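General statements about sequence and structure are easier to judge against a single worked case. Part of our work consisted of pairing the sequence of a single chain with a tokenised description of its backbone. The amino acid sequence and the backbone structure tokens for this protein are reproduced below.

***
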Amino acid sequence: MIPLPPNPDDAAILAARGPRATLDPDRPYSCLVEPEPLVRGGLVDVATIFTTGVECAFRCLMCDLWKHTLERSGSAPGIADQLDRALRELPGVPVVKIYNAGSFFDSQAVSDADRARVAELVQGRERVIVECHPLLVDRRCAEFAAAIAPTLLEVAMGLETVDPLVLSRLNKRMSLSDFDRAARLLLDSGVELRAFILLGPPGHFGAKSVEWARRGVEHALSLGAAYSVVIPVRPGNGMLDQLESRGRFVRPTLAELSQVLTHGLDSRGTPAVGGNDGCVLVDLWDIENCFDCPDCGPLRAEALRRMNLTQRPVAVADCDCREPVT
């Protein structure tokens, strides 16, 4: 049994960190275009623009997004200028994700004036996706949705886990009821919901980790999430590396990730999730951290990618490694 991490605080999490990346405050630090499934079927190209912004106001135990942020001081950076520069190079991409490594509705991260300009810049796109901490979801979400209409707004939020004890140890400063409140507010305002669910946060391991991640996906679907995205927790943020060295964090495996995704795909449209047939995905960013075997690791990762795109389970060839095939 993996013990729960000690109650974290900002000071301990900050002390465990390494250096930040060197960033240009006038440019997004990354941009990519990838296909993503649609709830109604088929695929759509999605441009993800990782803007260079200030660090999130919340310092979660498992987060490594701070590496590509600026110190949280002074005025908010020019997110709209960065977006304008990126969108000029992506004229035909119908869906845009604006990920600022924090909360789009945090006025210290994205100013009110910048949000108004962003609304003008995304006109003509089919859908715009932004991220936000549940505690910062308020009337501004509905106002921004109205400002970009008929472009559809989708807000991505970290559900993380429905295990209340583990959730309380992530330093996220929210409860499950906080997430549910924010989800209802979004959906009642005609805003779509994207929920992030963790596989393998400190305190979960093996079959227990799989079970809680499955429950998290079911909960997100039952709330009406259009997209439920499973994220395997990875080391590299300092605090998780310390916990791993002490045996308090164990990296999830590709087999566990496949089990959660397969269960989520099978759960879509069932009475247990209110008949919601939203998409279930896994996050493949740095998926190599989950490789146990150099032979079947890439094959399993490719199977997960295909499952993301087709929204159907994909079999993986047998391997002589000890990793069970699912």
About this structure: Residues 10-310 form a domain with the TIM Barrel fold (CATH 3.20.20.70). The chain has one domain: 10-310. The chain has ten helices and eight strands.
